[in-house]
Structure formats: C-alpha cells, structure tokens
Amino acid sequence: MTDLKTDLRTRAFAARKTAHAGGQGDATKHLLSTVAGHDVQIISGYMPIRTEIDPLPAMDALHRAGKTICVPVIVAAGQPLTFRVWTPDCVLEPGPFGAQVPRDGATVEPELLIAPLVAFDRAGNRLGYGGGFYDRTLEKLRAKRTTPAIGFAFAAQELELTPEPTDQPLDAIVTEAGVVVPAPAPR
C-alpha cells in the first residue's frame, strides 16, 4: 500500500502543480456556497502551502460574515490536530510542514473542517500527506458530534483511491469546477 500511495501522491502533486498555474476559477464561490449549507459557527480552514488551492478568500469572507475561523496546528506526530482562531490580520508564525499558524489566539473545536488534500475520489476518500492528522482529528470530533469535512482541491487531483479502515470520509469535495457530493455509503 505504501508504494501505491507514493505513486498516487507523485501523480497528484504533478496534477496539482499544473492546475495551480491555471488559477482557482470559481473555487471560492463553490466553497462558500457549500459551507453555507451547514448551520455551523466555528469553521476550520487551513493556511495553504506550496501549490494547494487557496482557501484564504473564503476564510476572509466567512470571518466578515461573523463566523469564527480557525486553522489546524500540529501538536506532535501521531496526535490529532488542535485549532487556533484565525483572523485576516492575526500575527502568523511558521508551523510544521511550512504552514503558517496564528502566533496567539484561543484554541477552539471546529464544527466543520475545510481540509486540504493531495488527492480525492468521488466516493469521498481523501489522500493526504501521510501523517494521518486529519483522520485522527475527524475520528475524535465525530465521536462527539456530526462534523462535516469538506475537501478543497483542484479538479485535476481526482484519482482512483483505495481507502484504509482508519480513513475518515469527506462529506463533499469542492473544486474550481464544482462540488462533488459522495453518495451515502451502503448500510
């Protein structure tokens, strides 16, 4: 499985790099309309790194609409993420993997996560960077309450994936081309 995931990540990174050069198109509009379909107050975005699709315009708009926006902070390997409140003017500092994180700010628990990813499929599976941070975090949050997770990516990052038992599914995937809502899993 490790070799397969390495190959998938290589292909997805190349596709993402090419897509990133073409711009985000309607991605922000699609993301805002998808988030608006959920009655939540605390929303986790993320600080984009490298060629990830940029959620900052949507995070800014949600903040101006009165939502509490937070971003993930890596505490340690093998641990769930924590989340620190983000505002458009907050002071940032480097965090692990090169993502900026708010230097100060309250720690909160999001009700909805906008998740970066390396690849996705139409069944709602997500391939991340390999640390398992989002899977552990979603498992912890979903044990308490329904916590929607929206993947945010370029359409070119869609690949055929094979989920593992610890993978947490996405409730939607938003791209510059539109929104993918996975069919409910059979019971």
From TrEMBL:
<dbReference type="GO" id="GO:0046872">
    <property type="term" value="F:metal ion binding"/>
</dbReference>
<feature type="binding site">
    <location>
        <position position="52"/>
    </location>
    <ligand>
        <name>substrate</name>
    </ligand>
</feature>
<comment type="similarity">
    <text>Belongs to the 5-formyltetrahydrofolate cyclo-ligase family.</text>
</comment>
<keyword id="KW-0436">Ligase</keyword>
<dbReference type="GO" id="GO:0030272">
    <property type="term" value="F:5-formyltetrahydrofolate cyclo-ligase activity"/>
</dbReference>
<keyword id="KW-0067">ATP-binding</keyword>
<keyword id="KW-0460">Magnesium</keyword>
<keyword id="KW-0479">Metal-binding</keyword>
<dbReference type="GO" id="GO:0009396">
    <property type="term" value="P:folic acid-containing compound biosynthetic process"/>
</dbReference>
<dbReference type="InterPro" id="IPR037171">
    <property type="entry name" value="NagB/RpiA_transferase-like"/>
</dbReference>
<feature type="binding site">
    <location>
        <position position="47"/>
    </location>
    <ligand>
        <name>substrate</name>
    </ligand>
</feature>
<feature type="binding site">
    <location>
        <begin position="126"/>
        <end position="134"/>
    </location>
    <ligand>
        <name>ATP</name>
    </ligand>
</feature>
<dbReference type="GO" id="GO:0005524">
    <property type="term" value="F:ATP binding"/>
</dbReference>
<protein>
    <recommendedName>
        <fullName>5-formyltetrahydrofolate cyclo-ligase</fullName>
        <ecNumber>6.3.3.2</ecNumber>
    </recommendedName>
</protein>
<dbReference type="Pfam" id="PF01812">
    <property type="entry name" value="5-FTHF_cyc-lig"/>
</dbReference>
<keyword id="KW-0547">Nucleotide-binding</keyword>
<feature type="binding site">
    <location>
        <begin position="5"/>
        <end position="9"/>
    </location>
    <ligand>
        <name>ATP</name>
    </ligand>
</feature>
<dbReference type="InterPro" id="IPR002698">
    <property type="entry name" value="FTHF_cligase"/>
</dbReference>
<dbReference type="GO" id="GO:0035999">
    <property type="term" value="P:tetrahydrofolate interconversion"/>
</dbReference>
<dbReference type="InterPro" id="IPR024185">
    <property type="entry name" value="FTHF_cligase-like_sf"/>
</dbReference>
